[in-house]
Structures are given as structure tokens and as C-alpha cells.
Amino acid sequence: MTPGVVGTRPTRALAVTVALALAVVTAVWSGQPSRAAGTTAAVEPLGVPFLPSPDPLHVTIASMVAVSMTVQKNVTIRLSDGTTRVTNQYTFTKLKIRSHMNVSQRAAGHTVTIDVPGEGSLGGYDSAGKPETTTMWGTISNVCVRVLVKICGVQGLLDFFGSLIPLTAGAEDFAGDIYAIRTVDDHAALDSTDNPVHLPGTITVTTP
Questions:
Q1: Contact partners, residue 148, CB within 8 Å, separation at least 6
Q2: pLDDT beneath 70, residues of the chain
Q3: pLDDT of amino acid 191
Q4: How many Cβ atoms from other residues are within 10 Å of residue 162's Cβ?
């Protein structure tokens, strides 16, 4: 992901009412994977014409809900500078934001920040009510669920639930450094114009 062209003013804030155009932006057409910044090295081509930046996105979510999250370790991804990383692949089903998602990236002397104070979607349901899938490549450092008591940490959740972590009751305090996010509507019709990313908030680009 490469930040957009920045004007001469030190800070620019843009209101976003439908979907945010950054690494998480998608354009689902013909039922194909959405065009988010990300691709893996020969293992799982994502059908996109560009690669993620070596500068990851720092993502925090105060509260979220999903049917499930699965984790695949030791996945190799290729970055835009020609290097590769061995990282994790997280797959969510019906991922929705309940409150406050913040995404920031520092690269090339700029800081790009997406802030979504309220509800949003990174792939919940399409207009036909069918589930959508969201994949993240990177490292989730923390996520918490409540099962009688609050359980935090990805490894702790894996130990508790196994390789499939149910998030139907919701999750809190998500934090991670993510190279790429892809959201897919697996059931999209050929004429579908659904966008599975809906994050009402602001984009701010700051220069030193």
C-alpha cells in the first residue's frame, strides 16, 4: 500500500461516508477477490496488479464481531520492495466493526490514518444476505473474547479454542500489524456492485 499524493499543507482530512480507500479498499466484480493491497509469493496469487508495502498498517479495533477466525502460520508474502515475509494469515467470516477502528501507516515521510469511530464492515453480509470473507496477512498481537471470563492474546485463544476461534459473541481490544487486507464476496453475481467494505470515518494524511 502506498499513501496517495499529498498536498503542500501539513495535514489533510477527508470525510468518508461509504468506504475508505486505502489498503482495505475493495472493488468486488464478477465474484472475484477484491482489489486490496496484498499477494503471496507463488503460494496463493490474489489476482491483484500490485503488492503490499513493506511498511505494515497498524490496526486497532475496540469492538468487533465475526462468525469465526482461523489462523494459518508461516505463510510467505511478497512485498513491493521485492522482499518476502513469513507471517500469519487470518481468515474471518462476516467481520463487522462494532466500535472504533483505527488504521495508521508511516511510510515515505507520511503518516496515513483512517479513523472509524462507530460501526462499520470489513465484510459482513452482501445485499443478498450472503456471508463475506476477510483475510489479513500480518501479525495480530492481541484480541480478547469473553467466555465466562475475558481471554486475551491470539495464542491463548488458539490454545483454548483450537485453530477455529468463534467470535459470534464479539471480540475486543484487537491490535495488529497487517501488511494486507482482502475482503471477498464469494457469492457475488456477475452484475453485483456490492462493496463489502463500509467504514464511515475520516482519512488524515500528515507530513512532517
A1: none
A2: 1-50, 124-130, 185-196, 208
A3: 52
A4: 9
